[in-house]
Batch of 3 targets.
Target 1
Amino acid sequence: MAMKKLNAMAILVTAVLWVFPTPARAGEAYIYQGESEFSASFYLIGGQYALYLNAKRPIRSFNAPEARSCIFGGNLQRVWPSQETMSLGAGITISTIVPHKIGPTSLTMPAGLYRLHIAPLTTCDWKFVINSTNQNTASVAPVRMLRFDKAGRPTFSETATVNDKVQFNAQYRTDHDAQAPASGVVQIINRGKIVLTLPLQAGPDFDGAATAFYVDVQWDQNGLKYLGKNTAKFVVKIGASEFTGTGEFTLTQ
């Protein structure tokens, strides 16, 4: 990473972001869909959420009729800090135009890392949505790192090389879904010391489903001095309140 240039930019742009943030509404949201097995993990800040699931017979092509039947199975697991499982359906056969639906239903969800698991035998066209409601107070989720491949496709990862482009990312929400200014910085911490500070952007998440704090970083050979475990710490303001979120990542050659 071009450390001198980035640090200079951080000092200037950070000052602007803290003084002139733009008010906006923000909430958590995760949307996944497919026609087969699938898994994805995501953090929830905790509180009140609306969950929706729809599974139906797939349409194979524009002119083709729906399949006569399909199978759906899946669950939503809380995998950290404790383990709990909510069934979304177990080997359900759909053979009519009536889909298998859950919700939208209101749920109280504790903070943690969650995993959506769609079973291997699934052949239905399915869609899963979970989003925070306006009953929640402002907060920020733990930080995660997206690593981009050569085609620019992002994947959540806990490791990156000194040649990778990455994005540090955390969804956030405003107080009761109200408009509020949001701004902040990310601190990269190596061996207990802050080695880099960069301004965060606040805007649509990488998949457009929600609003997040994020910053893109292109590592280069200057990052060799930070090999090993590091911490990305977000220090943000949402309205008049300050919040922090952290996430660990490993930098390799």
Target 2
Amino acid sequence: MIKYSIVLLSLTIPSVALSDNSYMTPLSKGVPSPYDGLLLTPEAVASIIADKETESDRIRVETDKVKAEEQAKSQYAISEVQTKSETDKKIIQAQSDVNLRKANQYQEMLAKEQNKPSPYIWIGLGVVGGTAVTIGTIFLLGKINLVRIP
């Protein structure tokens, strides 16, 4: 709080008051002041001048500190996003691998099914075989005179 008061004080005192000796009058204890104003010891004036001269350095240090903190926060956020991205990539890759294995299994099953004879062939063979057995039975029964063939 004292630092801020000194900074404010240094901003309120005109710069000519610090550089022009006509506004500065040395006083001894008990001597009345020739004008209204602020009474400062030489050490206080030196402190104000030093503070004013180092003010830009302090601002730079504070700015660098805030900048470093923001960079650390940004780097943390970037790291967090990269980690999530890598995790998501691994999950998607695993899902892709599972889907690829399933697709290969389905292709193998389809290839096995395609190598089997069609059900229409089995139906055709059944019809032809049934007809042959029926004709053969009728022919044999006709030979033994159980059935008359016209």
Target 3
Amino acid sequence: MKSGAGRKRKHRQQTPGEITTVRTALRYFLTNHDRILEERAQALMFLGEIEALARSQKRLTDATYRRDAYNVFSEEISQELRMLNLPHRSVYRGEHRVPVYDTRSISIEEIGGEAEGVLMAVVDSTTGLSTDKIVEMCRTIPAVRQAQLDEEVDLSTAIGISSVADLRNIVEE
């Protein structure tokens, strides 16, 4: 079990250092898919953080990301997915079982201009890519490569790095 599992997350408003909440950003990404692997949702949210930092030196949300064996992981995002109570099934990816959520019932919430621009840039830059390629985009970020297994990814070192569109170009070379 990941650390922090079992704790309930309260919905909260963003702070001045963030441009939206985990719930709002996650729902935005979910509305762009009929079904989504949790690892894809995690990677899209992380790329949203990178895009926000590249554009405005602000965090997208207050989510904390950890490095796991394959991807980045945020317990806050995982909890939010569970709280949405979406129909899901598990599939095997390699030797691991991962949930695939049916997101057709999700509707978008009102979203602010700066956050919408960041989220749209991530969607535009990842459209047509496999989950593996999106995860690879996350792994090209130095803060992710430098983090040890289950260690928090230090996003403060990601300020001013490439946009998500630039990361896509790197993984498609």
